[in-house]
């Protein structure tokens, strides 16, 4: 009969689904526990050292002026750039050029003008040495890394193992030494468990392993639908159960509705989350709002004030020109036809902002200037709903003051713009904002109280586990 066929299919699907269901239950419990033990996040609370511990004299007259770098770029056929920066990279004073807002940087030796990128291993090892306090680089290996801030699919990078007080793995861009990712041992273990056990991804092919994951999800959903049909079909029979009914059947029948609800919705939500984080990740991360035909920038025919001149003007910005430590970064930017110079007294400090034309300091960019800076690199002709906020910036490993705007791009993105540089540090499309409530349900972060949420998660996991064990008992008895 049809009922018998459904029962047999349900039994065999249940046996097949046991492995992935147990893997999901165990891994989710472990991952939730790891999250409880790491209140600062998986990457830890890293303290960055100064970018050049030895104190390189960036305002020295021995360095070539920025105009020299612009002329070299002009000779390469580049008419304008997004920004120009002078900073030490692995102990070498260097000019870092951002040709476009979504392009890889290029690097020039500030003493000789020689082009340095892609950076050699020796410089990248020194960059890693100076990245984390009390730590030093041990080994390096080539790597390819996805990064939301670039237009290319993968960025040529290196993985550097760091030992010492803050043991970790740093992923550095081969182009400029920029830190693309920091991963401590716990985070690395978490990622292996998450990918290998929780989302069943053991390689780099997103499409192949997404197909495997979605097949398992479909198998589980089919199991739930067939089980629901059997549960409804046998509703009258359950009313006549007596003490002779085996405990396994009683447990399986009584817990079925709750287990089906939790497991079924979790499968659907998990599939939705992975679709965003896997198949459409670049767009999910905000790359759909990239304005590839961006406007503005610094023309390579311009004359910019040298670092030596800017260091002299630093006194007018409220800091003595000979203040210690020495300036660790100079940066030139163009916003709405105006030129600004950013002077960083320390790596982890907010910059002093100078209007190049007048030499006058700004406490921060005005909202109008920030909107103009964002509008040049974000799709859509309108930025609205300005809100002052703070947002995490990987380059600083900290939250920084931002203006948040809602853009009129096709993805209805929120863009966070640094109040001091005009850099767009986060892009969050509507699909990202819709993602939040589903993630809360998937991770059981309902209340923000880690203990309560974990107890609730554990209780529901025990329900699913009871369904698996009782189902096995029933299947063995029917053999």
Structure description:
The strands form 4 sheets. Strands 4-3-2-10-11-12-13 form a 7-stranded antiparallel β-sheet, sandwiched between helices. Strands 5-6-7-8 form a 4-stranded antiparallel β-sheet. Strands 14-15-16-17 form a 4-stranded antiparallel β-sheet. The longest helix is centred in the N-terminal third of the chain and has 36 residues, at 2-37. The protein has 479 residues and is α+β, with helices and mostly antiparallel strands. The model is unreliable at 316-324 (pLDDT under 50). The chain is built from 12 helices and 17 strands. It is 41% helix and 22% strand.
Blueprint of the fold:
Elements: H1 2-37, H2 66-75, E1 80-81, E2 83-89, E3 92-98, E4 106-109, H3 121-129, E5 135-145, E6 155-164, E7 168-173, E8 179-183, H4 185-198, H5 206-233, H6 235-239, H7 247-279, H8 281-284, E9 298-299, H9 307-313, E10 329-335, E11 338-344, E12 352-355, E13 361-362, H10 367-375, E14 383-393, E15 398-407, E16 414-418, E17 424-428, H11 430-443, H12 450-478
Antiparallel strand pairs: 1-9, 2-3, 2-10, 3-4, 5-6, 6-7, 7-8, 10-11, 11-12, 12-13, 14-15, 15-16, 16-17
């Amino acid at each position: 009969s049809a009922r018998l066929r459904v029962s047999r299919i349900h039994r065999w699907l249940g046996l097949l689904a046991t492995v992935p269901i147990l893997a999901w239950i165990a891994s989710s419990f472990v991952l939730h526990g790891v999250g409880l033990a790491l209140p600062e996040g998986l990457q830890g609370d890293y303290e960055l050292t100064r970018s050049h511990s030895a104190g390189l004299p960036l305002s020295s007259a021995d360095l070539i002026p920025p105009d020299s770098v612009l002329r070299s770029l002009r000779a390469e056929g580049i008419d304008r750039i997004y920004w120009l920066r002078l900073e030490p990279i692995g102990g070498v004073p260097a000019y870092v050029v951002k040709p476009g807002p979504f392009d890889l940087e290029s690097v020039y030796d500030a003493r000789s003008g020689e082009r340095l990128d892609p950076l050699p291993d020796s410089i990248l090892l020194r960059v890693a040495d100076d990245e984390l306090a009390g730590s030093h680089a041990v080994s390096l290996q080539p790597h390819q890394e996805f990064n939301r801030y670039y237009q290319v699919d993968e960025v040529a990078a290196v993985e550097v193992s760091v030992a010492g007080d803050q043991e970790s793995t740093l992923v550095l861009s081969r182009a400029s030494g920029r830190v693309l990712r920091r991963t401590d041992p716990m985070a690395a273990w978490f990622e292996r468990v998450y990918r290998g056990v929780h989302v069943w991804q053991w390689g780099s092919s997103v499409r192949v392993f997404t197909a495997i994951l979605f097949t398992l999800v479909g198998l589980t959903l089919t199991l739930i639908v067939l089980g629901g049909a059997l549960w409804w079909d046998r509703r009258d029979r359950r009313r006549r159960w007596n003490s002779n009914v085996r405990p396994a059947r009683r447990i399986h029948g009584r817990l079925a509705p709750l287990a089906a609800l939790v497991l079924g919705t979790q499968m659907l939500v998990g599939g939705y989350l992975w679709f965003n984080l896997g198949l459409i990740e670049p767009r999910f991360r905000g790359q759909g709002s990239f304005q590839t035909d961006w406007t503005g920038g610094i023309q390579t025919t311009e004359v910019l004030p040298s670092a030596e001149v800017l260091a002299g003007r630093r006194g007018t910005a409220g800091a003595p020109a000979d203040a210690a430590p020495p300036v660790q970064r100079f940066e030139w930017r163009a916003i709405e036809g105006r030129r600004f110079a950013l002077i960083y007294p320390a790596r982890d400090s907010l910059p002093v902002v100078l209007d190049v034309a007048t030499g006058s300091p700004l406490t921060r960019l005005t909202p109008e200037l920030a909107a103009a800076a964002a509008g040049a690199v974000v799709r859509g002709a309108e930025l609205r709903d300005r809100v002052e906020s703070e947002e995490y910036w990987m380059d600083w490993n900290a939250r920084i003051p931002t203006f948040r705007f809602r853009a009129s791009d096709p993805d209805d993105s929120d863009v966070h713009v640094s109040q001091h540089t005009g850099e767009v540090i986060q892009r969050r499309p509507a699909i990202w904002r819709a993602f939040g409530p589903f993630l809360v349900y998937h991770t059981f972060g309902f209340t923000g109280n880690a203990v309560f949420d974990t107890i609730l998660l554990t209780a529901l996991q025990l329900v699913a586990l009871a369904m698996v064990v009782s189902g096995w008992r029933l299947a063995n008895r029917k053999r």
